[in-house]
Every structure is written in structure tokens, then in C-alpha cells.
């Protein structure tokens, strides 16, 4: 039987959740035995070429490219997991949600102390379009599971992955979700 | 312009009377502006932010001018059913200003407010403290013309209502609409009889009598009154307080309005009985701002009781029993009906609930042992002392003794107040009220339950359908889910914001409900409504959040078909349909001068 396939992506996040995944230490060797990584920054595979069992999403959606990536994950992954505060609720990037995007862009590109002369809001068509606000993943696609934390601890990610692989309920013990 | 110092002095510079000061400032200046807030803060040794926090908390205080005539039009669902939309349009047309704004000339401001206790005579509005009922486009035209002529709001009322509404100190166009007068609250009563009997007993014996009557709190929660009094009496404190909760804010309830109009003496007698029982010297009637029009009249009733010796030093002829009552006005906040929030508000603060325990009977008004009882409860207590516990228990059911005042409104021929024995079925009540074809009945206000014809055989009593008395009837032509939306908007508006489950949870529930109403929901959304509703219910700090999910939860339980008919199914069942990528991109494309994306087909 072939190994379960995992894909991962970091959207509007800081890669901290991916770092936390790597923080499972030597269990990563066991993980490699258990699963095959597909599209992921971990192995640098850029495009989906087959269906996956588990998709891990770090970060919410702050631009249209995030939305497209998230939707392609939903399309290709049987189980989609929002990993960490930003994916679950928008997180730090969503702090801008109370401010109109026009004001944000003008503040960042036209009015900063470090810009001078003919300033412009970047508008090259190659650039992803910033969204009006930062959306948590479940407001864009159906999400099957949510892992809280900023970042979720390595132990929590390990517990969640092994639970998913073994098809058993997740044991969210107190020490895994205690943050202070 | 009235001097702020004069207003502060008028209320003895007492911080617990800050709401009274703010009310006077609001009346004198049309708002509580920054200068006034600074002056109040300085005089009362508070921060300006604290004063601003209090001003912004209450509906009837504003930081910007509300107009020489501030119109607060009720937004209750029953008002909408009775033609509120046309009345609101008429106000906007005649006043030349939109709701939520004040006209540029500063004459008229139009605002929305939650239920003002006039559900039996909607649409209604409060203008400069004066109540206007059964509004029509024609009436609005006359009222606005009167405002333009500079006439005081009190002169603009139409035909006066019945009973004490015609009293020179009331002169309100409010109708009592007493449809069924029962033996307890509306029965014949010799003034002072209950109190005189009470002071002839020991306080312990009075409490024992109230306990024996099995009187349960009439505000809705049904806590045993005698037990509450007993707890309070046993607490050590410098002073004990009796507070009457006349902040009747549960949408659809108006029976306390009628008691305050027609049986104020009985209520004050009940407060004195309670004062004697718990060992209090002071009673406070916390009167909701919407009923401020009754205050001069109620003060005159209190004066009368003092003259008759039923209040004051040696009340009811009992040496050593000194008991008097003061009236404190609220300023428009539903949450102040919650007893610990009410106490905070009576102390002149934001009406935010306290942590419990300690309970008010332990640490209440000014941190002294305090009982907070509903208007109707205190009336019952006076009658129990007058007629005896056995008489009281002979009415109602085994577990729910006595009668209950019901405020009936909505799609029925005879809206108004019904005093009925506990145990009456909903069907019997509908027959009395003239609503044979009712499709749904909201029992206990938005925080209660919505039942359909299957539930009409249920009985109104604590074992089955408990209620503070709000009964709203909906005919088959009504869109019940729009009613639910209205109730959820009410809770979003009235959440005090202290705790997250209530502040954020109700917004999320409302959004999810609107998603379903917009035809973008799926079966999962209904599951989430139930799950999130349970979270809000179980983790909120006070009764508001603990019941605010009920409109959704009870209609999902009793009218699930209405929801299911609006769901997406099939291939789209799992899709998230309320996210619009093109719309989310539009603003930044405009800001950056990029092409505006065209609407996308649904993804998911």
C-alpha cells in the first residue's frame, strides 16, 4: 500500500508553523517513513500532480493568490487542516481588517517617512492583488480541522498528524493548548 | 444654557447620581459634549474616559447633538409588523433627515431604539421623554409640524389613554389595554393592608409567609422570593437595600408599565414589606428611561404614602421601622434588566454585569446586601401579606403558585395585559387574545422560546413554559426567520461587550443566519449555528449571552423546515458561498489603478 500523501503551504503567515513542524526533532525521520510529502516548501514541489490525503495550511488569505492556492488545496486534499492562529482566525495580518485597504496601501507606499518623490502604489500585473481584508481559511473553503496556537507546538502538530494517519480522535490535552 | 456646576450641585455632587446629571446635561445641551464630560470628570474625580464610557453606554445619551427634538423610534419586530416602515419614512420625509442623524439646523434628530414597552400599541416612539403611540403617517406629519412651531413635545400628544394615563402628572397617550384583570395584581386591595399585617409579625415570620406562598420571581428566572429575602436578611452589612427592577426591557414585555400606571401603591407597599423583611431602610425603584413619563406621578404616589404614614419614619405605625423609597432612572440599556448590571447602573456607572458570586444579596448596591425583585413579584408579596399564603397558593399550579401577568402582542385581535392563573395553555391564551390562526408564538421574549402549533398545548408555568410575561404572536403570513434576524440584531445591539462569547458570538450567529437567509447556507451552517449557539450559551457571563442564541436554537428545533428550505444542496453542499473574490479585490485594484476584476463563478 502506498504511503499517505501530505501537502503543505504557507499563505499569509510567517512560516513559523512550518518551523514548528520541523521542530518535531528526530520524529521527522519517522514521519518520512510514514508519509510522502507532495506540494510543499519542505521538498519544493510547486504544483499538484496527484490527489493528497492531508493538506496543512499555514496563514489566512491576504491576496488573491492565497485564495487560488487555498482553493487548489481544497480541490486536491481529502482532509484540509488550518494550522495555527493565522489560518484559523486571520492572526496578526488581520490586525489591518479594521482599516480600509486604500488607507493601508497609501500609508505603506505613499506616506511613509522613507518614500519620497513620485511614489506609487505598486500595480504590476505580476503582483498578487491585496484583498480588502485578511480572511481566515474557513471563510474561503471548507476546512476539516483546526489546530490552534501561534505556532501550534511541535507536539500538537505531531499528535494531530498521527491521529489523522491512524484515523483516531485527536487528544487535545491541556499542555498542548496551554500558551502561557 | 444651564451651567454644568448647577447640575452637579443639584445632585449633590454624588457620583452615584451621575446618570441623573448626564440626563440633565443631555436635556439642557442636546448632548453630553466634551466640555461637559471634562467638567463632570473633574467634579466627580473620575477620568474623562470613564465619563465618556458611561455616556456611550446608554441609548439616551449622545456625544454629538441629538437635536432639540430627539426622536427614538422603536425597532421591535412588532412595530415593523404594524407599519413601522411607513412611519419611519414619514419621519425622514417630514424632518428632512435620515435615521441616525440630526438635521443640520439642529431641530430634529432621528434615532432607532430597542423595545420601549409599547408592543400593544406600535409603532411607537419616545420624543424628548414623551411617548407617542400608534403612530401613522398623518400623526407624524402633525408631530413634526408641531416641532417646527416650537411646541414642547408634551403638547404634541394626541388623545390620552385610559385610567391614570389621564392623570394630570402623566397625560400620556399610552393605553393600558388590561384585557383580563386577575385577583392578585389587579384584584381589589385595601391600600396598606399587606404592610400593616407584615409589620405586626416578626421579619422572620414575614419571610416564612412568603416562603409558604411559594412565590417565584416574576421577571422570568423564577427564583424563590422568600429564599432570596432570607439570604439577604442573614447577611451582615451596614445597610440593606431593596431594589425594584422596573427596567422592563425584554422585547414584548409591558406589564410593568401597566402596574406602574395603575397599581403603583401596591408596588411600593410590596417594597416596604420587603424592606421590613430584610431589614432595609431604603428602597430604590430603578425605572427604565422609557417610562420616565411616569416619574412625576410615581413621586406623587410616594408623597401620598408618606402622608398616610405608610412610608417614612415608623412606617405603617411600626416604631423603629424607617423605610423610604427613591426613584432612579435608567438611560436606555436592555442589559440593565440583569440585576447586577442594574445595580451598577443605579450606582451611576456603565450597566455591565458583575461576576457572581458574590450575589447581590451578599454584595449588592454600594456593596451592601441587596434584594432585587421584579415589579410584579413585589406586588404579589404585598397581596400575599394581605390575603395569606394559602389564598395565593390556591391559584395556579402545584409548582407555580398564583397568577402571571402576560404582555400579549402581535397578530391578535386583543393585544394587552392578561392576568391569568399559571397553568393556562398557550392555546387558551390565543383564544382569549383572538388569535385562532397563530402560526408561531414567542414565549418569554427573544431570550425565551419560539413554539409552533405543536407546542400550543403546553402550559405557561415554571415547569413547562416559564416566562417573564412576553408573548408575541405571529400569523402564518409572517416570515419567522426575519423575526429571528430582528431578535439577533437586538442582542448584537444590546450586548454590553464585556465578554467575548456574547460580544463576538452574537455577531457570528447573526452573520451565519444571514448567510442562510441569503440562500448561501448549507447543512453544515445549521450544524454550526447549533454548535456556536451552545458555546455562546454556556460561556457567556450573564443571562443576556446565556439566552441570546435562543431565537435561533428554538426555531431550529421547532421550525427546522423553514431553514432547510433555504439551504443549498447537491454539488454545492460543501462550498463556501458567501466569499466573493472579485468583490474582495475591488478596493485595492481601484487604489492601485489596476483593472477591476469581474465577478467570478462560484468556487469552493
Name the CATH superfamily classification of the largest domain in chain B: NADH-ubiquinone oxidoreductase 51kDa subunit
Q: What is CATH's topology name of the largest domain in chain B? A: Rossmann fold
Q: So what's the overall shape of chain B?
A: globular
> Could you give the count of β-strands of chain B?
15
Strand order of the largest sheet of chain A: 2-1-3-5-7
Q: Give the C-alpha Rg of chain B.
A: 25 Å
Counted up, domains of chain B total 5
- In terms of DSSP E residues, the strand content of chain A is 15-25%
And the CATH topology of chain A? Answer: Rossmann fold
- Helix share, percent of chain A: 25-40%
How confident is the prediction overall: mean pLDDT of chain B? 95
Give the mean pLDDT of chain A.
93
Q: In which order are the strands of the major sheet of chain B placed?
A: 6-12-11-15-13-14
Q: What is the number of strand segments of chain A?
A: 7
Report the CATH architecture of the largest domain in chain B: 3-Layer(aba) Sandwich
Described by its quaternary structure, the protein is heterodimer
Describe the fold and architecture.
The complex is a heterodimer of chains A (180) and B (604). Chain A is globular and about 60 Å long. Chain A has six helices and seven strands, in the order E-H-H-E-E-E-H-E-H-H-E-E-H. Chain A has 180 residues and is an alpha/beta fold. In chain A, 31% of the residues lie in helices and 19% in strands. Chain A starts with a strand and ends in a 14-residue tail after the last helix. In chain A, the strands form two sheets. Chain A has a five-stranded parallel sheet, sandwiched between helices. The longest helix of chain A has 13 residues, at 64-76. Chain A has one domain: NADH:ubiquinone oxidoreductase-like, 20kDa subunit (Rossmann fold). Chain B has 604 residues and is of the alpha/beta class. Chain B has 25 helices and 15 strands. Chain B has helices spanning 4-10, 18-29, 34-44, 48-57, 77-81, 84-95, 137-148, 193-199, 203-213, 225-234, 255-262, 264-278, 295-307, 339-346, 375-387, 389-393, 426-433, 480-494, 500-503, 505-517, 523-539, 543-547, 550-558, 560-564, 581-592, and strands spanning 69-74, 101-102, 108-113, 125-127, 130-132, 178-180, 240-246, 280-287, 324-329, 370-374, 403-410, 416-421, 440-443, 449-451, 470-474. In chain B, the strands form three sheets. In chain B, strands 6-12-11-15-13-14 form a six-stranded mixed sheet. In chain B, strands 2-3-1-4-5 form a five-stranded mixed sheet, with helices on one face. In chain B, strands 9-8-7-10 form a four-stranded parallel sheet, with helices on both faces. The longest helix of chain B has 17 residues, at 523-539. Chain B is globular. The interface between A and B is medium-sized, with 24 and 22 residues.
